[in-house]
Amino acid sequence: PWRSQHSRQHLVATASNLIHNYHGADAFTKQLNTLRLGMHRNCMDANDTRVCTHLALSPTAVYKKHNDLRMVRQIGGLYWNTTFCPMAVGDACTRKAIIDAVLLGCIPVFFHRCQLLQWPWHIGGWLERATLFYDMERVVGNRSRTPLDLVGELKRVPARAVARMQRTIAEHAHCLHYAVTEPGFVPAAAATRIGDVPGAFEIALQGAWRLSRNASIEASHRPHLCRRVPIDKDSAATSLIG
Q1: What is the number of domains present in the chain?
Q2: Which residues lie below 8 Å from residue 109, measured CB to CB, with a gap of 6+?
Q3: How many angstroms separate the CA atoms of 28 and 123, rounded?
Q4: Which of 34, 60, 97, 171 is at a distance of 20 to 30 A from 179, taking alpha carbons?
Q5: Helix or strand holding residue 13 (H, E)
Q6: Under 8 Å between Cβ of 85 and 10
Q7: Residue 178 and residue 175: Cα distance in Å, rounded?
Q8: Which residues are paired to 173 by β-bridges?
């Protein structure tokens, strides 16, 4: 799906459980909640779902998400039909939603540098070329600074830049894909690779083997094991802006 050239209905989309009660939260958590609420208001101000749409998730559905297939389908459909997917930091920098968005061809928008440091074996440096970054404090704003108009910023991203990021995703996202190959669940032809290129599971095995050969290796020096799969110019992902 990350190599699909289908038309996407929304420029920007967000999905979150909006938390209004800050009681007992520390300063960083309050800032994260302010970011989510600000993104939601900014999206609603666009007043056009083709520009920005928001999927409100119920706390119950989020808590039981592994059993809520309806919510999974909603989020998957949202990412599949959107060009930019803002990813607010959650309880930690690592968010499954980042991988979901990339595998569905949606360009992640990050707000904290730690989000670019995840999964070094699978990502290396390519994700930075396939994402946009806006500092969280700039987006949230404060008493002396107006919050950033995130949707407005994303509307101004040049079409050529969007196409370049979409192409980068199309050529590398297989490295984040863990395919299901259990007999009887999916066709036997399913595999964790494109041709002879390793997928996420094989990359994890390679990385673990290399790490076992040098247990003292630093995280910053771990090898980038993702192999690019080029696409023809004719099949490059098509920009949906402009």
Answers
A1: 1
A2: 84, 85, 86, 87, 131, 132, 133, 134, 150, 154
A3: 27
A4: 60
A5: strand 10-16
A6: no
A7: 8
A8: none
Q: Torsions phi, psi of 14, nearest 5? A: -130, 150
pLDDT band at 215 (very low <50, low <70, confident <90, very high): low
Q: What phi, psi does 11 have (nearest 5°)?
A: -75, -50
How many Å from the N-terminal Cα to the C-terminal Cα in the chain? 23
Question: Each residue of 97-127: b (16+ CB within 10 Å) or e?
Answer: bbbbbbbbbbbbbbbbeebeeebbbbbbebb
Reduced to 3 states (helix: H, G, I; strand: E, B; else coil), residue 120 is: helix
Whether the model pTM is above 0.85: no
> Between the CA atoms of 131, 13, 20 and 68, what dihedral angle is there, to the nearest 10 degrees?
-100
- Summarised one tens digit per residue, pLDDT across range 30-71 is 777 888 888 989 999 999 999 999 998 776 655 555 556 788
- What is the Cα–Cα distance from 110 to 91, expressed in whole angstroms? 15
CB-CB contact of 140 with 38 (8 Å): yes
Sheet holding 107-110: strands in order across? 52-56, 10-16, 82-86, 107-110, 132-133
Domain that holds residue 102: 1-242
How far apart (Å, rounded) are the C-alpha atoms in residues 198 and 165? 22
